[in-house]
Specification:
Blueprint lengths: L7 H36 L8 H12 L21 H13 L4 H26 L2 H13 L1 H6 L6 H15 L8 H19 L6 H14 L1 H25 L3 H7 L8 H32 L4 H16 L11 H9 L1
Helix pairs in contact: 1-4, 1-5, 2-3, 4-5, 4-7, 4-14, 5-14, 7-8, 7-14, 8-10, 9-10, 9-13, 12-13, 12-14, 13-14
Length: about 325
Amino acid sequence: MTRPETMPLPLLQRASRALLILAFILLIFHLAVYLVYAANLIAFPFDYDQGEGFELVDTVMFSRGEWPYQDTEAFPFYSSNYPPLYHVIAAPFVWLFGPAYWYGRLLSLLSTFVTAGAIGYAVYRESHHRWIAILAGLAYLASNTIYHVGPLFRQHISMVMFETLAVVLLAGINEVQDKGRRRGLLILGAGLIIAAGYTKQLAVWTALAAGIFMFIRQPRRAILWGLASAAAGIAIFAWMTWATDGEWWRQAILANVNEIKILQSLALFQQWFGLHGFLIVPAALVVFYELYFSRISIYSLWFILAVGINGAASGTWGGGDSYFATAIAATCIL
């Protein structure tokens, strides 16, 4: 005969399983809606977001071997303030298909899937719970913010992909015993962070989170690899500044230093929490737990900087809800 104290356990297990199945069905529905939206957007031949035209012009210019960082006081009175990598990746499509929006949108859509996969992998590696890992990846794709910006011909979501891949790769770097493999992973992680930075400038805060994490665990290694990564990034920066007669510095860096509108930042923080609060609260609890009872992870550091600094920057001219995309990726993992 079953003892009374053992009876609730199967009931809790069944309830847990039922909730997981319901969550999975709900998130699969969200994924279907996302895919329908993306398919329609990819087929739409005109610009849908005000920034897509600039992204396409930059891509066309790179496909011709031209820099989009130009003097705005001389004809054609155009310059870009976006880093180059996203447009360089899309440039070969111009050679094959001419100027069009669909391939930039497809690249961005694929970036969201890669990010979701990296989130799921990170959660499974830490928890060994397949269903929770799948739900974490699907939660990223179900976010209203990712739905909004994910399939657009915009570079921001590709930056988040490179950031997430780098953070997930570096999260367990100190546990890798084989020196050769660890060195290879460090090179790849540093390369992904540099790639994120040359996709969009906001990735600098992910680089800082990774640097702080490595310094806490292995100060000497962090300093050496930090200096090497900084040297590589600065070398690329110096070359681009020289090759564009200083316009890269003026247009992509100086022109992006804008005043923060506090009310706009607060409104976007409120929107972000209103849409993702059921994920943000447990994520924040994990951060507090690590701070007071365990040791802080790279994911918590990433979350803190992405929420605090990127969130505040959402109030600048040209900012918006997309500035929370990195924080959403970190939230889904936590």
